[in-house]
Amino acid sequence: MQVALDDYVQAAGVATDLVNTAPEVWHGEDKLPDLGSLTAFAGLHSLPEPSRPGDLRAVHRLRATVRELIDRPDRARLITGATALTSSIGDVTLLAGSARWAVSARPGATAADSLALVCGVGILGVVQSLGAERFRTCGAPACRGAFIDTTRPGRRRYCMPGLCGNRVNVANHRARKRSRDGFFEAP
């Protein structure tokens, strides 16, 4: 498995998706409760399938580590943490037939190792290209999610815009409607 160093946007997206599988984001429901769900997550993100008994526990530990990095986005801490995720797992290589650099997982790397490599590359790429201020918690009042904002303008507010952003918009619409309806009522 290889992760192109200039493809940090996709890698940061995988890191965001990973941290948002945690039970605290889903009010107690873990979105990676078993090996089957981890296999589906790996397939969705073109990662190696888990094959070892400890893969699920290792991914849960990785998820907590990545979340901790996102929650406290100090530049030096992000670099140290992301470097630790990648340093013992991969080798930097030049992609065949191109001028692009990539990190390749070493032979025998586990699914958790490969996922750590992807998350580390995503974090390092965002810190270098966009800055530490792109690591945020969700702006929705009832959500405990976190994300890495890789949008061009850097104004993303929600961990899952289609879910959290929509909920906030619906709540705001209903509040305006109640206010407007109440305004026209006769005393």
Described by its quaternary structure, the protein is single chain
The CATH C-level class name: Mainly Alpha
| Percent range of helical residues | 40-55%
> What is the H/E string?
EHHHHEEHEEH
- Strand % is 5-15%
Walkthrough of the structure:
This protein is mainly alpha-helical. It has one domain: Jann2411-like fold. 50% of the residues lie in helices and 10% in strands. The strands form 2 sheets. A 3-stranded antiparallel beta sheet has the order 1-3-2, covered by helices on one side. Helix 3 (55-71) runs parallel beside helix 5 (111-129). It is globular and about 65 Å long.
Short descriptors:
3-stranded antiparallel beta sheet, mainly alpha, 6 helices, two-stranded antiparallel ribbon, Jann2411-like fold, 10% strand, 187 residues
Task: Briefly summarize what is shown.
The protein has helices spanning 8-19, 35-44, 55-71, 75-87, 111-129, 161-183, and strands at residues 2-4, 90-94, 101-105, 135-137, 146-148.
Topology:
Blueprint: E1 2-4, H1 8-19, H2 35-44, H3 55-71, H4 75-87, E2 90-94, E3 101-105, H5 111-129, E4 135-137, E5 146-148, H6 161-183
Antiparallel strand pairs: 1-3, 2-3, 4-5
Helix pairs in contact: 1-5, 3-4, 3-5, 4-5
